[in-house]
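Students often ask why inverse folding is considered easier than folding. One informal answer: many sequences map to the same fold, so there is more than one right answer. In these notes we will look at a single instance of the problem. The structure comes first.
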């Protein structure tokens, strides 16, 4: 898609952030945060799309330079568009132990901050300042949205609330997760005087007035380099909505990257957990394969992904638990190792019911029974109609709805209006196509099962 030369790679430098403009489909603009290898400074650059699958490498323009003299660490690097359509930028404190220049508290420095700008989307434009930024018209750089941050490594907006979550890498005692509630700004998170909830013993700074404490801090026995994540707002995993996932890059467990979760409700942390074992993608008894978690991702549906820098892999968080326990209880280790036998799309006993169907229905996947579905063409009022019968005597805990379609190519083909219920009893439900089978066409019937 895009190759960029001249990017610095010393220490923690690199190509550190990427964000597509909310109107990318129209304007083709996107932005990167990188270290300039020639100067050591960090830059936010804008590029434009060339074709659907490639950027115009010659379109790059620096819209913001962040001076970073003398050190190669604490570059920050996250950039992302907020619900307001503005670009937010997470910058590190400039590097060196304990922020030697106290940049994070200096409102005349870009370092150790969350910035907020309105980037230009035309050639040669840079950016403008949103007039509701907290330091517009008062002492301090107009671009600053929040400050007192050491090295924000991966931030995200909660698509459900608009809150901004920040993973801030600690010095030597605590990692921390910070949060900026939607509609607020100007927070001072306290670094360098404060690390986590505690005063930093390495400096003699006064505790900043009105410093905002983190949502949670994590001691060095559990984490040593935090990676911020996302609040789960997907629909694929029941019960996880509103759960914030984050990770640690260094403190591995049995060679596995450590992953944590929490819920933040009514101003307090609920259900803070180490979920490393639950997210282990490896088969039981093998070496876990997620080792260096450098970032998380979120797709258009709110489902979450985990990036493993050590192995160069991408993982998706998917539902497990009860279905997997059911498979373990019903199949031998050898069968579990063969998806053709134990996979949910397989039919182990050959009774025309997939293992997934057997799981939902609560039936034995190794005991063949009568086919649940019987299809036929039957005469009704002198015309042929398609019928489908569902033998449901051994099915419990589900709601069954018959649906039909005469056109599977439409955007929403299935409807109960297209299926007429012929019989419905505790043991059987039979449906018929609402219209005769066309002489030169087809008709489709199905049953949709949902768990009660």
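Output (designed amino acids):
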């Amino acid at each position: 898609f895009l190759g960029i030369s001249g990017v610095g790679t010393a220490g923690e430098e690199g190509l550190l952030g990427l964000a597509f403009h909310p109107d990318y489909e129209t304007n083709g603009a996107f932005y990167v945060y990188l270290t300039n290898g020639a100067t050591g400074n960090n830059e936010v650059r804008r590029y434009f799309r060339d074709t659907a699958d490639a950027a115009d490498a010659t379109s790059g323009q620096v819209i913001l330079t962040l001076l970073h003299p003398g050190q190669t660490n604490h570059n920050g690097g996250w950039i992302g568009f907020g619900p307001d359509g503005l670009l937010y930028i997470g910058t590190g404190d400039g590097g060196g132990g304990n922020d030697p220049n106290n940049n994070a508290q200096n409102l005349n420095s870009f370092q150790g901050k969350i910035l907020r700008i309105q980037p230009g989307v035309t050639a040669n434009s840079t950016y403008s300042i949103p007039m509701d930024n907290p330091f517009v018209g008062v002492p301090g750089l107009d671009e600053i949205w929040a400050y007192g941050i050491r090295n924000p490594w991966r931030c995200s907006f909660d698509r459900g609330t608009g809150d901004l979550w920040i993973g801030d890498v600690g010095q030597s005692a605590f990692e921390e997760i910070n949060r900026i509630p939607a509609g607020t700004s100007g927070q001072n998170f306290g670094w360098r005087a404060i690390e986590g909830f505690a005063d930093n013993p390495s400096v003699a700074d006064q505790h900043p007035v009105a410093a905002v404490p983190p949502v949670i801090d994590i001691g060095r026995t559990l984490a040593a380099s935090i990676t911020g994540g996302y609040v789960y707002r997907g629909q694929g995993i029941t019960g996880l909505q509103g759960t914030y996932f984050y990770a640690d890059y260094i403190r591995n467990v049995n060679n596995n990257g450590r992953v944590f979760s929490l819920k933040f409700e009514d101003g307090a942390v609920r259900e803070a957990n180490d979920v490393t074992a639950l997210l282990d993608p490896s088969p039981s008894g093998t070496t876990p394969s997620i080792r260096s978690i450098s970032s998380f991702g979120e797709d258009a549906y709110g489902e979450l992904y985990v990036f493993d820098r050590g192995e160069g892999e991408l993982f998706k968080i998917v539902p497990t638990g009860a279905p997997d326990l059911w498979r373990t209880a019903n199949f031998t280790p050898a069968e579990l190792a063969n998806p053709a036998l134990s996979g949910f799309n397989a039919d182990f006993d050959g009774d025309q019911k997939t293992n997934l169907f057997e799981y939902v229905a609560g039936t034995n996947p190794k005991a063949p029974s009568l086919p649940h579905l019987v299809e036929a063409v039957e005469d009704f009022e002198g015309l042929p109609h398609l019928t489908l019968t569902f033998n449901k005597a051994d099915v419990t805990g589900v709601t069954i709805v018959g649906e039909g379609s005469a056109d599977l190519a439409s955007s929403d083909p299935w409807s109960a209006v297209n299926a007429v219920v012929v019989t419905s009893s505790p043991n059987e439900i039979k449906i018929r196509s609402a219209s005769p089978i066309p002489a030169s066409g087809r008709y489709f019937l199905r049953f949709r099962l949902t768990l009660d």
